[in-house]
């Protein structure tokens, strides 16, 4: 037998990014607590360990942010995803009720109009880039409508977010293009916020501006500070589009690669919610998230020290054979329990129900209009934390 190659994992390797699952399997088996060769972070890859860490915010803190290449300081860069309770709970609570299943159901008509606008323009017998045709634009328009972003500016904002997330092979630091994109995003969102201060509407930016919450540190109710408003709205503009774009594209490719499951969906649309859940598990859009330890932790015979960074591999946890039978197959009938594709615990994705519903509507439209679609060439660009496609050739039939 040939000797097993040395086990090496880096979230900034394009080869691993393109197909991480073989490395993930080895991590789970050979090194469930893996030490980065540069000693910059630890990596947890098994479902039980990742799920436990996500729940234990007192040990696995979010205050330094979700990504070690761009550390935060208690929410100054990334808003609530870089906060621990009680501050996290107070600020997240400003919009908590806006994204409940009931609230998303109330948006049903508006969501359907966005999906129909983009999918009804497509013609059977043609070939399109699914990303340009609808996978980019549906989530971008949904969050654009919610935030009140003018139609003419939405594509530019999406391009800036993609540039902000793009990373270079083997480089941990953010490239200058990402830093510049971040500056442009903050400037643009800041201008929108100032416009809403003088002319508020019924959009999310206006709601955030007008919201108050009780702050025990001052013993009274207060509004969000200007910086808190900016970071919260920045987060909404990104999270509302980026991960949903990846979910739609990853799901279309996965279902094409499992035609038996896709044909079941075509003949029974009631399976579509299960298909979205399985797409989230099978090829998770948010592939990893980072935390920092507040105390020493011993796990699988390894000691991690207080202050250490720990990467939690959501994409690996969702393929863990200890949690899922035949995890490398797309199977609609999986029993559902705790799943970590949207994170878990206090930081579970605020917009998860909205993302699910958007993807369900897109998959249903494809099943009705293009039940025998085929996928051609599809490409990814190396990005931080999220994983999906930038182009997907799709034959409509």
From TrEMBL:
<protein>
    <submittedName>
        <fullName>Cytochrome P450</fullName>
    </submittedName>
</protein>
């Amino acid at each position: 037998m040939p000797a097993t190659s040395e086990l090496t994992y880096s979230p900034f390797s394009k080869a691993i990014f393109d197909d991480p699952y073989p490395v993930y399997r080895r991590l789970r088996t050979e090194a469930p607590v893996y030490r980065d060769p540069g000693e910059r972070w630890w990596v947890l890859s098994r479902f039980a360990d990742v799920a436990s860490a996500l729940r234990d915010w007192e040990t696995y803190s979010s205050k330094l942010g979700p990504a070690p290449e761009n550390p935060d300081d208690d929410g100054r860069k990334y808003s609530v995803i870089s906060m621990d309770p009680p501050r996290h709970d107070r600020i997240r609570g400003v919009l908590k009720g806006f994204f409940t299943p009931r609230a998303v159901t109330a948006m049903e008509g508006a969501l359907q109009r966005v999906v129909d606008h983009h999918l009804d323009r497509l013609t059977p017998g043609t070939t399109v880039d699914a990303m340009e045709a609808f996978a980019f634009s549906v989530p971008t328009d949904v969050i654009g409508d919610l935030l009140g972003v003018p139609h003419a500016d939405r594509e530019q904002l999406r391009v800036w977010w993609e540039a902000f997330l793009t990373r270079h092979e083997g480089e941990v630091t953010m490239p200058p293009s990402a830093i510049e994109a971040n500056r442009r995003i903050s400037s643009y969102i800041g201008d929108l916020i100032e416009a809403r201060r003088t002319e508020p509407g019924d959009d999310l930016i206006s709601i955030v501006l007008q919201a108050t919450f009780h702050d025990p540190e001052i013993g009274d109710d207060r509004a969000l500070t200007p910086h808190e408003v900016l970071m919260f709205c920045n987060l909404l503009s990104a999270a509302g589009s980026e991960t949903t774009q990846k979910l739609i594209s990853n799901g279309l490719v996965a279902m094409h690669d499992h035609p038996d499951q896709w044909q079941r969906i075509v003949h029974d649309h009631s399976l579509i919610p299960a298909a979205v859940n399985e797409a989230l598990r099978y090829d998770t859009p948010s592939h990893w998230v980072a935390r920092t330890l507040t105390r020493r932790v011993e796990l699988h015979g390894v000691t991690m020290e207080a202050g250490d960074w720990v990467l939690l591999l959501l994409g690996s946890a969702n393929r863990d054979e200890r949690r899922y039978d035949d995890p490398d197959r797309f199977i609609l009938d999986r029993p559902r329990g705790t799943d970590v594709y949207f994170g878990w615990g206090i930081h579970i994705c605020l917009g998860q129900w909205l993302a699910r519903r958007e993807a369900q509507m897109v998959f249903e439209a494809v099943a009705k209009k293009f039940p025998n679609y085929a996928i051609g060439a599809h490409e990814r660009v190396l990005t931080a934390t999220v994983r999906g496609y930038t182009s997907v050739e799709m034959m409509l039939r």
